[in-house]
Each structure stands twice: as C-alpha cells, then as structure tokens.
Specification:
Layout: H1 3-11, H2 23-29, E1 36-40, H3 46-53, E2 57-62, H4 65-75, E3 80-84, E4 95-101, H5 107-119, E5 121-132, H6 136-139, H7 153-158, E6 166-181, E7 187-201
Parallel strand pairs: 1-2, 1-4, 2-3, 4-5
Antiparallel strand pairs: 5-7, 6-7
Length: about 200
C-alpha cells in the first residue's frame, strides 16, 4: 500500500486507530526516563503523543500526510516534531528510543528499516517493535493477510545478527484480545497474535 492509499484510508474515517498507546508500548516503556524518541510509521501519533505527554522529545514520522496532520492536531503543543516521509529513505535523528508499531513490509524492507532505526540509537538506547506475527495469519484475527509482509520476533532479532552491542530484553510472540461484534448484536473476543522485540544498545 502506498502513501496515497494510506491518505485515502485516513481521510475516510474520523479516527482510524485508538487514541491511547499500544498496550505493549505502554507496559514496556512507561518507566523509562524521558529523552529523545523516534516513532517510525507513527500513523495518527497515539504512541508519540503518549511519549511526549510523559516528557519525551519525540520525532514522529509517517508517509501519510493526512495521518501526520491529524496527529499534529491531536497533539496540540506537546513536544513532537511531525515529519512526512518514507521510513526507508527519510533522514532520522539520533535518539534514545525508537518505537516501531505495526509497520509491515517485505522482508528486505523490514530489515532495512530495523537496521536504519538501530543505527540512530544512542548507547544505552532502547529499540521497541511490535507487529502482527506471522502465525496470526492462520491462528489469530485481523492484521495483514499477506505472509510476505509478516514476520516473527526471531526474524527481527535476526535483522541485527551482525550488529555489536545488541541486548535482547524480550523477543517473543504475545496474545492481544480483540473485541468484535457477534452475529446476535453482542460482542465477542478473539485472539490476535503479535510479536514484541525489546532491545537495548550497549
């Protein structure tokens, strides 16, 4: 899906994603002392806004101008620099934290983004990625239905296999409950399978 298609998707709804941070981002990063953060593929900025509200100086980048404009409005005067750009080629600032949430790319592009993100991380910095897991295609619900843009935690860690100073805090598949309408006008819960990769740079 290209930037124009994402612009159309964001323009078609008042809010595409939740305004609250991703549950795994919040749980893992809430106790980190604030510094400079980079939110790649930030969408409407839910994670960037949460980080900025906790004192982080955030750069939020996405290739949808519609999403970036919406995030800017939602953020008000919080300390966020909003950028429209392709994460594969855009200039990235040096930071203490990189967050990548639900960015699904072909394997070679994913590797490039992970390595680019790692390259701008300062010593003792944190890399945090959450994405739909490959197994969600057959065992879970929602998310991309294309195996070529899905991966596992092991794939992401493997993207940095030749990099020195990679400390793995957590790299595993995780379950996320999704609520949906059922056929009788009520609601039912389904399991979506994600993976979390939490790394530190020594």
């Amino acid at each position: 899906m290209d930037a124009h298609a994402w612009d159309e998707r964001y323009a078609a709804a008042a809010q595409v994603w939740s305004t609250t941070p991703n549950q795994f981002v919040e749980a893992a990063l809430r106790d980190l002392p604030p510094g400079d953060a980079l939110d790649l593929a930030a969408g409407e900025g839910r994670n960037a806004i949460w980080l900025a509200a906790r004192g982080w100086r955030v750069t939020a980048a996405d290739f949808s101008a519609v999403a970036v404009d919406r995030g800017r409005r939602l953020a008000g005067d919080l300390a966020i620099e909003w950028r429209v750009g392709d994460v594969l080629v855009a200039d990235l600032p040096a930071v203490d934290l990189v967050v990548v949430a639900y960015l699904h790319l072909a394997a070679d592009e994913r590797t490039a983004v992970v390595r680019r993100a790692w390259s701008v991380l300062r010593p003792s910095g944190t890399f945090f990625l959450v994405a739909h897991d490959l197994t969600n295609l057959t065992e879970g619900t929602g998310g991309p239905q294309d195996a070529s843009v899905l991966s596992t935690a092991g794939d992401v860690v493997g993207d940095l296999a030749d990099e020195p100073g990679v400390e793995v805090v957590r790299a595993e598949r995780v379950a996320r409950l999704v609520t949906a309408d059922d056929a009788h006008g009520g609601e039912e819960q389904h399991t979506a399978w994600d993976h979390v990769v939490h790394l530190r740079r020594s």
